[in-house]
Amino acid sequence: MIDHTLPAWFENTSIVVMLAILIIDLLLVVRRPHVPSTKESALWISFYVGLAVIFGLLVLWVANDAGLNGTELSLQFYAGWLTEYSLSADNVFVFLIIMSQFAVPKRMQQELLMLGIVLALVFRGIFILLGAQLLESYSWLFYIFGAYLVYVAIQQLREKDEHGSGEDNAVMAWLKRVLRVHPEWRDTDRWRVMVDGKKLLTPAILVLVSLGTIDLIFALDSIPAIFGITTSPFLVLATNVFALMGLRQLYFLLGDLIDRLHFLGHGIAFILAFIGFKLVNHALHLNELPFINNGEHVELVPEIPTWLSLVVIVVTLAIAVLASLARSKREEAKSAKH
Length: 338
What we know:
By secondary structure, the chain is mainly alpha-helical. The chain has one domain (8-337). It has helices at 8-31, 38-65, 70-101, 106-137, 141-158, 170-179, 204-227, 233-244, 247-254, 264-287, 306-337, and strands at 192-195, 198-201, 291-293, 296-298. The strands form 2 sheets. Strands 1-2 form a two-stranded antiparallel ribbon. A hairpin with a 2-residue loop joins strand 1 (192-195) and strand 2 (198-201). The longest helix is centred in the N-terminal third of the chain and has 32 residues, at 70-101. The radius of gyration is 22 Å and the shape is globular.
């Protein structure tokens, strides 16, 4: 069993720095609200990706210095981060659908996105704490998590674009009545508006509820997936925070690509199914009966190594993106002919 306990000073310092970066990003939105250009979004995303790469190298160095298996822990971080980042991209597509359905003005999208990111961080933090405690006490939960991820993967393929975020549903209709929401956006007040002497909320509150609901659903999907790669609560938290960094910029960067990355959802489904299988395999490995052959203990169910998980994730995402771009080119060539 690999020791996942990194030095306390490193874990505490990393958490403070990561949260500080997210807070600074939030303050930038408050102080300078605007719609970032494609170039600006790409530069910010490159910066955050660079931070994640550097963090993985720091994990390698600090772990080795502490006498731990730094290579394994670093690979676990990179595999978990890539998985979370791919799930975040899928999350962004759902955010785009919500913003479109509610016709959210451009000037409000950044503020609502940042509030959605804060909610995502809160939900995931809660699930990480609960998941770590439960998995430490009840290893058989790996079977349930694994089966659940395979189920989610199947649903991802069958209902890729249906996440229950539609504006016209019973829950939204009930909220409109209870919260007294005005049906239109007003320039005078973004969250509240005065109509006939009465203060009413704008649709921004409904968008925030929708984003929070989606964040909760994605937390239920993503946290078991990351625990399938690493059982370190700190690394699980780090992968989530680094995936949330730049999510706002990723939203604006992918806005024009939502119809082009057709196979990304299929790639994510395969990754979830693979990690689900890995979780079940891990549970079998933990609970297998000892098998002795010629006086030596033989593992009937070997662990899937982290490097193999990383290769599967990278190759799957590359194939999904390249296949999507190839399909878009074929469709563009076909439309040009006609």
